[in-house]
Protein backbone atom coordinates (compact mmCIF):
# COMPACT_ATOMS: atom_id res chain seq x y z
CA UNK A 1 0.00 0.00 0.00
CA UNK A 2 1.04 3.62 -0.60
CA UNK A 3 1.13 5.86 2.46
CA UNK A 4 -0.28 9.39 2.25
CA UNK A 5 -0.45 12.15 4.85
CA UNK A 6 -3.95 13.62 4.89
CA UNK A 7 -6.48 15.74 6.74
CA UNK A 8 -9.11 13.47 8.28
CA UNK A 9 -12.50 13.97 9.92
CA UNK A 10 -13.21 11.19 12.39
CA UNK A 11 -16.98 11.66 12.60
CA UNK A 12 -19.68 14.10 11.54
CA UNK A 13 -18.92 17.62 12.72
CA UNK A 14 -15.55 16.69 14.26
CA UNK A 15 -12.52 18.92 13.86
CA UNK A 16 -10.01 18.12 11.17
CA UNK A 17 -6.78 16.36 12.16
CA UNK A 18 -3.60 15.05 10.57
CA UNK A 19 -3.65 11.38 9.66
CA UNK A 20 -1.89 8.81 7.50
CA UNK A 21 -4.08 6.94 5.03
CA UNK A 22 -3.32 4.13 2.58
CA UNK A 23 -3.75 4.25 -1.18
CA UNK A 24 -3.88 1.06 -3.23
CA UNK A 25 -0.88 -0.16 -5.20
CA UNK A 26 -1.06 0.72 -8.88
CA UNK A 27 -3.10 -1.52 -11.14
CA UNK A 28 -2.54 -1.69 -14.90
CA UNK A 29 -4.66 1.39 -15.66
CA UNK A 30 -3.91 3.39 -12.51
CA UNK A 31 -2.08 6.68 -12.09
CA UNK A 32 -0.37 7.86 -8.92
CA UNK A 33 -0.73 11.63 -8.58
CA UNK A 34 1.27 13.82 -6.21
CA UNK A 35 -1.35 16.39 -5.23
CA UNK A 36 -0.24 20.02 -5.31
CA UNK A 37 -3.53 21.82 -4.71
CA UNK A 38 -6.98 20.80 -3.48
CA UNK A 39 -9.91 23.19 -3.68
CA UNK A 40 -12.42 23.57 -0.88
CA UNK A 41 -15.98 23.01 -2.11
CA UNK A 42 -19.05 23.80 -0.02
CA UNK A 43 -20.07 20.17 -0.52
CA UNK A 44 -16.97 19.15 1.47
CA UNK A 45 -18.48 20.99 4.42
CA UNK A 46 -21.98 19.58 3.94
CA UNK A 47 -20.62 16.03 3.84
CA UNK A 48 -18.06 16.50 6.61
CA UNK A 49 -20.75 17.88 8.91
CA UNK A 50 -23.31 15.24 7.96
CA UNK A 51 -25.79 17.70 6.41
CA UNK A 52 -26.68 15.36 3.55
CA UNK A 53 -27.52 12.29 5.56
CA UNK A 54 -25.47 9.14 6.14
CA UNK A 55 -21.77 9.50 5.36
CA UNK A 56 -18.65 7.35 5.56
CA UNK A 57 -16.20 8.17 8.37
CA UNK A 58 -13.36 8.67 8.83
CA UNK A 59 -13.52 11.04 5.86
CA UNK A 60 -10.82 12.78 3.82
CA UNK A 61 -12.68 15.42 1.78
CA UNK A 62 -11.68 17.06 -1.48
CA UNK A 63 -12.72 16.56 -5.12
CA UNK A 64 -10.96 19.50 -6.78
CA UNK A 65 -7.51 18.03 -7.25
CA UNK A 66 -4.55 19.35 -9.25
CA UNK A 67 -1.21 17.55 -9.23
CA UNK A 68 1.67 15.90 -11.02
CA UNK A 69 1.81 12.33 -12.30
CA UNK A 70 4.28 10.43 -10.12
CA UNK A 71 3.86 6.91 -11.55
CA UNK A 72 1.69 5.05 -14.06
CA UNK A 73 0.44 1.50 -14.41
CA UNK A 74 1.75 -0.81 -17.12
CA UNK A 75 -1.18 -0.22 -19.52
CA UNK A 76 -1.42 3.58 -19.18
CA UNK A 77 -0.66 5.30 -22.51
CA UNK A 78 -2.27 8.76 -22.31
CA UNK A 79 -0.24 10.08 -19.38
CA UNK A 80 3.42 10.10 -18.36
CA UNK A 81 5.37 10.89 -15.22
CA UNK A 82 5.60 14.66 -14.84
CA UNK A 83 2.31 15.50 -16.56
CA UNK A 84 0.08 18.19 -15.02
CA UNK A 85 -3.26 16.55 -14.30
CA UNK A 86 -6.50 16.92 -12.43
CA UNK A 87 -9.17 14.78 -10.76
CA UNK A 88 -12.73 15.93 -10.14
CA UNK A 89 -15.75 14.53 -8.35
CA UNK A 90 -15.57 10.93 -9.59
CA UNK A 91 -12.88 8.25 -9.79
CA UNK A 92 -14.67 5.30 -11.42
CA UNK A 93 -17.81 4.13 -13.19
CA UNK A 94 -18.95 0.98 -14.94
CA UNK A 95 -17.86 2.22 -18.38
CA UNK A 96 -20.53 0.08 -20.04
CA UNK A 97 -23.96 1.65 -19.50
CA UNK A 98 -25.56 4.06 -21.98
CA UNK A 99 -24.56 7.10 -19.93
CA UNK A 100 -20.93 6.09 -19.51
CA UNK A 101 -20.65 5.33 -23.22
CA UNK A 102 -22.14 8.76 -23.98
CA UNK A 103 -19.56 10.49 -21.78
CA UNK A 104 -21.98 11.18 -18.92
CA UNK A 105 -20.25 9.04 -16.31
CA UNK A 106 -21.82 11.08 -13.51
CA UNK A 107 -25.14 9.35 -14.27
CA UNK A 108 -23.70 5.80 -14.39
CA UNK A 109 -26.49 3.27 -13.79
CA UNK A 110 -24.23 1.08 -11.66
CA UNK A 111 -23.45 4.07 -9.48
CA UNK A 112 -20.49 6.33 -10.04
CA UNK A 113 -17.67 6.09 -7.49
CA UNK A 114 -17.17 9.48 -5.89
CA UNK A 115 -13.70 10.79 -5.11
CA UNK A 116 -14.46 10.66 -1.40
CA UNK A 117 -17.30 9.58 0.90
CA UNK A 118 -18.00 6.66 -1.40
CA UNK A 119 -17.22 2.97 -1.77
CA UNK A 120 -15.25 1.74 -4.77
CA UNK A 121 -16.39 -1.40 -6.57
CA UNK A 122 -14.22 -3.50 -4.24
CA UNK A 123 -16.10 -2.11 -1.26
CA UNK A 124 -13.25 0.06 0.00
CA UNK A 125 -13.92 3.67 1.09
CA UNK A 126 -12.54 6.43 -1.11
CA UNK A 127 -10.48 9.29 0.30
CA UNK A 128 -10.21 12.67 -1.36
CA UNK A 129 -7.79 15.45 -2.15
CA UNK A 130 -6.96 16.86 1.27
CA UNK A 131 -3.92 14.59 1.08
CA UNK A 132 -0.45 14.18 -0.42
CA UNK A 133 -1.35 11.78 -3.21
CA UNK A 134 -4.11 9.79 -4.81
CA UNK A 135 -4.37 6.71 -7.05
CA UNK A 136 -6.95 7.00 -9.84
CA UNK A 137 -8.00 4.96 -12.87
CA UNK A 138 -6.55 6.71 -15.93
CA UNK A 139 -9.85 7.39 -17.68
CA UNK A 140 -10.90 9.62 -14.77
CA UNK A 141 -7.82 11.83 -15.03
CA UNK A 142 -7.80 15.04 -17.10
CA UNK A 143 -4.91 17.08 -18.43
CA UNK A 144 -4.36 20.63 -17.12
CA UNK A 145 -3.45 22.95 -20.02
CA UNK A 146 -0.14 24.77 -19.72
CA UNK A 147 -1.92 28.15 -19.81
CA UNK A 148 -3.71 27.36 -16.52
CA UNK A 149 -1.87 27.69 -13.23
CA UNK A 150 -2.41 24.62 -11.10
CA UNK A 151 -3.80 26.49 -8.11
CA UNK A 152 -6.61 28.06 -10.17
CA UNK A 153 -7.16 24.82 -12.08
CA UNK A 154 -8.15 22.93 -8.92
CA UNK A 155 -11.57 24.59 -8.35
CA UNK A 156 -12.43 24.16 -12.01
CA UNK A 157 -12.63 20.38 -11.43
CA UNK A 158 -15.90 20.89 -9.54
CA UNK A 159 -17.05 24.51 -9.56
CA UNK A 160 -15.97 24.97 -13.17
CA UNK A 161 -17.60 21.92 -14.68
CA UNK A 162 -20.69 22.33 -12.48
CA UNK A 163 -21.45 25.66 -14.16
CA UNK A 164 -20.00 25.03 -17.64
CA UNK A 165 -22.00 21.86 -18.27
CA UNK A 166 -25.55 23.26 -17.81
CA UNK A 167 -24.73 26.48 -19.66
CA UNK A 168 -23.58 24.42 -22.62
CA UNK A 169 -26.43 21.89 -22.36
CA UNK A 170 -29.13 24.61 -22.33
CA UNK A 171 -27.42 26.48 -25.18
CA UNK A 172 -26.21 29.66 -23.53
CA UNK A 173 -24.82 31.72 -26.38
CA UNK A 174 -25.45 34.60 -28.79
CA UNK A 175 -29.03 35.86 -28.67
CA UNK A 176 -29.72 34.25 -25.28
CA UNK A 177 -30.44 36.16 -22.09
CA UNK A 178 -28.92 34.29 -19.15
CA UNK A 179 -29.25 35.11 -15.45
CA UNK A 180 -26.85 33.81 -12.83
CA UNK A 181 -28.30 33.60 -9.32
CA UNK A 182 -25.54 34.10 -6.78
CA UNK A 183 -22.14 35.72 -7.19
CA UNK A 184 -20.10 33.23 -5.16
CA UNK A 185 -17.76 30.33 -5.78
CA UNK A 186 -19.97 28.90 -8.53
CA UNK A 187 -21.58 32.08 -9.74
CA UNK A 188 -18.43 34.05 -10.47
CA UNK A 189 -17.31 31.25 -12.79
CA UNK A 190 -20.75 30.95 -14.39
CA UNK A 191 -20.62 34.65 -15.29
CA UNK A 192 -17.30 34.14 -17.07
CA UNK A 193 -18.50 31.06 -18.95
CA UNK A 194 -21.79 32.59 -20.07
CA UNK A 195 -20.01 35.74 -21.23
CA UNK A 196 -17.40 33.76 -23.18
CA UNK A 197 -20.17 31.71 -24.79
CA UNK A 198 -21.68 34.95 -26.12
CA UNK A 199 -24.81 35.27 -23.97
CA UNK A 200 -26.17 38.49 -22.48
CA UNK A 201 -25.42 37.95 -18.79
CA UNK A 202 -27.31 39.27 -15.76
CA UNK A 203 -26.27 38.64 -12.16
CA UNK A 204 -28.96 38.31 -9.51
CA UNK A 205 -27.39 38.66 -6.07
CA UNK A 206 -28.75 39.61 -2.66
CA UNK A 207 -26.99 42.98 -2.56
CA UNK A 208 -24.97 45.28 -4.81
CA UNK A 209 -21.72 44.58 -2.94
CA UNK A 210 -20.22 42.48 -5.74
CA UNK A 211 -21.47 44.54 -8.65
CA UNK A 212 -18.13 45.90 -9.86
CA UNK A 213 -16.50 42.45 -9.72
CA UNK A 214 -19.38 41.02 -11.72
CA UNK A 215 -18.93 43.62 -14.45
CA UNK A 216 -15.20 42.95 -14.50
CA UNK A 217 -15.86 39.24 -15.04
CA UNK A 218 -18.22 39.85 -17.94
CA UNK A 219 -21.71 40.59 -16.59
CA UNK A 220 -23.83 42.96 -18.66
CA UNK A 221 -26.37 43.71 -15.91
CA UNK A 222 -26.60 43.31 -12.13
CA UNK A 223 -29.63 43.46 -9.84
CA UNK A 224 -30.11 43.06 -6.09
CA UNK A 225 -32.73 40.45 -5.22
CA UNK A 226 -33.40 42.09 -1.85
CA UNK A 227 -35.06 44.85 -3.87
CA UNK A 228 -38.50 43.46 -4.65
CA UNK A 229 -38.79 45.83 -7.62
CA UNK A 230 -36.18 43.61 -9.29
CA UNK A 231 -38.73 40.85 -9.84
CA UNK A 232 -41.31 43.16 -11.41
CA UNK A 233 -38.71 44.88 -13.61
CA UNK A 234 -37.31 41.59 -14.93
CA UNK A 235 -40.52 39.55 -15.24
CA UNK A 236 -40.44 37.34 -18.34
CA UNK A 237 -36.90 38.40 -19.28
CA UNK A 238 -34.65 35.34 -19.38
CA UNK A 239 -34.20 32.29 -21.56
CA UNK A 240 -32.11 30.55 -18.91
CA UNK A 241 -31.53 31.06 -15.19
CA UNK A 242 -28.69 29.20 -13.49
CA UNK A 243 -29.21 29.02 -9.73
CA UNK A 244 -25.85 28.53 -8.00
CA UNK A 245 -26.80 29.14 -4.38
CA UNK A 246 -27.10 26.40 -1.75
CA UNK A 247 -30.04 28.02 0.01
CA UNK A 248 -33.79 27.76 -0.40
CA UNK A 249 -35.20 30.48 -2.63
CA UNK A 250 -38.69 31.67 -3.55
CA UNK A 251 -38.82 29.39 -6.59
CA UNK A 252 -42.03 30.91 -7.92
CA UNK A 253 -40.48 34.37 -7.92
CA UNK A 254 -37.49 33.21 -9.95
CA UNK A 255 -39.65 31.19 -12.35
CA UNK A 256 -41.59 34.40 -13.06
CA UNK A 257 -38.40 35.87 -14.53
CA UNK A 258 -38.36 33.31 -17.35
CA UNK A 259 -39.69 33.82 -20.84
CA UNK A 260 -42.01 31.27 -22.43
CA UNK A 261 -40.00 28.03 -22.78
CA UNK A 262 -37.38 29.32 -20.35
CA UNK A 263 -35.57 27.03 -17.92
CA UNK A 264 -34.44 27.44 -14.32
CA UNK A 265 -31.52 25.09 -13.66
CA UNK A 266 -30.37 24.31 -10.13
CA UNK A 267 -26.76 23.42 -9.36
CA UNK A 268 -26.76 24.60 -5.74
CA UNK A 269 -28.02 21.98 -3.29
CA UNK A 270 -29.87 23.28 -0.20
CA UNK A 271 -30.31 20.83 2.63
CA UNK A 272 -34.11 21.32 2.76
CA UNK A 273 -36.62 20.75 -0.07
CA UNK A 274 -37.83 23.63 -2.24
CA UNK A 275 -41.52 24.30 -2.93
CA UNK A 276 -43.22 25.86 -5.93
CA UNK A 277 -46.59 26.13 -7.67
CA UNK A 278 -47.05 24.11 -10.83
CA UNK A 279 -48.83 27.12 -12.34
CA UNK A 280 -45.47 28.91 -12.39
CA UNK A 281 -44.49 26.32 -14.98
CA UNK A 282 -47.57 25.57 -17.02
CA UNK A 283 -48.68 29.15 -17.66
CA UNK A 284 -45.55 29.84 -19.71
CA UNK A 285 -44.32 26.34 -20.63
CA UNK A 286 -41.36 26.83 -18.33
CA UNK A 287 -39.03 24.11 -17.06
CA UNK A 288 -37.42 23.51 -13.68
CA UNK A 289 -34.26 21.41 -13.94
CA UNK A 290 -31.05 20.34 -12.25
CA UNK A 291 -27.55 19.42 -13.37
CA UNK A 292 -24.81 17.28 -11.83
CA UNK A 293 -21.28 18.40 -12.83
CA UNK A 294 -20.23 16.84 -16.17
CA UNK A 295 -18.51 13.82 -17.65
CA UNK A 296 -14.77 13.41 -18.10
CA UNK A 297 -14.74 14.35 -21.78
CA UNK A 298 -16.71 17.52 -21.05
CA UNK A 299 -14.47 18.33 -18.08
CA UNK A 300 -11.43 18.26 -20.37
CA UNK A 301 -13.32 20.43 -22.85
CA UNK A 302 -14.08 22.90 -20.04
CA UNK A 303 -10.42 23.14 -19.00
CA UNK A 304 -9.38 23.75 -22.60
CA UNK A 305 -12.12 26.39 -22.92
CA UNK A 306 -10.79 28.15 -19.80
CA UNK A 307 -7.27 28.15 -21.20
CA UNK A 308 -8.49 29.54 -24.52
CA UNK A 309 -10.64 32.31 -23.02
CA UNK A 310 -8.58 33.22 -19.98
CA UNK A 311 -11.20 32.02 -17.49
CA UNK A 312 -10.07 31.33 -13.94
CA UNK A 313 -11.57 31.36 -10.46
CA UNK A 314 -10.61 34.03 -7.97
CA UNK A 315 -8.88 32.11 -5.18
CA UNK A 316 -7.27 32.39 -1.78
CA UNK A 317 -4.50 29.84 -1.22
CA UNK A 318 -4.13 28.53 2.34
CA UNK A 319 -1.81 26.11 4.10
CA UNK A 320 -2.63 22.54 5.05
CA UNK A 321 -2.68 23.04 8.81
CA UNK A 322 -5.90 21.48 10.17
CA UNK A 323 -6.85 24.60 12.09
CA UNK A 324 -6.29 26.81 9.05
CA UNK A 325 -8.48 24.58 6.89
CA UNK A 326 -11.14 24.42 9.60
CA UNK A 327 -11.14 28.21 9.79
CA UNK A 328 -11.54 28.36 6.01
CA UNK A 329 -14.60 26.11 6.30
CA UNK A 330 -16.14 28.53 8.78
CA UNK A 331 -15.45 31.42 6.44
CA UNK A 332 -17.09 29.56 3.54
CA UNK A 333 -20.22 29.10 5.66
CA UNK A 334 -20.24 32.86 6.25
CA UNK A 335 -19.64 33.59 2.51
CA UNK A 336 -16.41 35.26 3.59
CA UNK A 337 -14.17 34.38 0.65
CA UNK A 338 -13.58 35.85 -2.82
CA UNK A 339 -14.35 33.23 -4.14
CA UNK A 340 -12.71 29.83 -3.59
CA UNK A 341 -10.22 28.52 -1.04
CA UNK A 342 -7.45 26.28 -2.33
CA UNK A 343 -5.25 24.19 -0.02
CA UNK A 344 -1.53 23.99 -0.78
CA UNK A 345 -1.27 20.27 -0.10
CA UNK A 346 2.50 20.21 -0.54
CA UNK A 347 2.59 21.54 3.01
CA UNK A 348 1.20 18.26 4.35
CA UNK A 349 3.82 16.31 6.24
CA UNK A 350 4.17 13.92 9.13
CA UNK A 351 4.13 16.60 11.85
TrEMBL record:
<dbReference type="InterPro" id="IPR013149">
    <property type="entry name" value="ADH-like_C"/>
</dbReference>
<dbReference type="InterPro" id="IPR013154">
    <property type="entry name" value="ADH-like_N"/>
</dbReference>
<dbReference type="GO" id="GO:0016491">
    <property type="term" value="F:oxidoreductase activity"/>
</dbReference>
<feature type="domain" description="Enoyl reductase (ER)">
    <location>
        <begin position="13"/>
        <end position="343"/>
    </location>
</feature>
<dbReference type="Pfam" id="PF08240">
    <property type="entry name" value="ADH_N"/>
</dbReference>
<protein>
    <submittedName>
        <fullName>NAD(P)-dependent alcohol dehydrogenase</fullName>
        <ecNumber>1.1.-.-</ecNumber>
    </submittedName>
</protein>
<dbReference type="InterPro" id="IPR011032">
    <property type="entry name" value="GroES-like_sf"/>
</dbReference>
<comment type="similarity">
    <text>Belongs to the zinc-containing alcohol dehydrogenase family.</text>
</comment>
<dbReference type="InterPro" id="IPR002328">
    <property type="entry name" value="ADH_Zn_CS"/>
</dbReference>
<keyword id="KW-0479">Metal-binding</keyword>
<dbReference type="InterPro" id="IPR020843">
    <property type="entry name" value="ER"/>
</dbReference>
<keyword id="KW-0862">Zinc</keyword>
<dbReference type="InterPro" id="IPR047109">
    <property type="entry name" value="CAD-like"/>
</dbReference>
<keyword id="KW-0560">Oxidoreductase</keyword>
<dbReference type="Pfam" id="PF00107">
    <property type="entry name" value="ADH_zinc_N"/>
</dbReference>
<dbReference type="InterPro" id="IPR036291">
    <property type="entry name" value="NAD(P)-bd_dom_sf"/>
</dbReference>
Amino acid sequence: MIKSHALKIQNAGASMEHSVIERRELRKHDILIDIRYSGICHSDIHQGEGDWGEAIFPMVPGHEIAGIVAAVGSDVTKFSVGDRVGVGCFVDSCGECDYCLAGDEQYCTKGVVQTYNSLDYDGQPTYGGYSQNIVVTDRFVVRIPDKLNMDVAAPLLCAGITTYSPLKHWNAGPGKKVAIVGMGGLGHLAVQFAHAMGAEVTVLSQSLSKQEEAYTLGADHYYATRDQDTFSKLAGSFDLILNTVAANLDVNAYLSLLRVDGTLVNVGAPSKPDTYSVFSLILARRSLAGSLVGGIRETQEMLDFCAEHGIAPMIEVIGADPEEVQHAWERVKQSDVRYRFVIDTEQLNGN
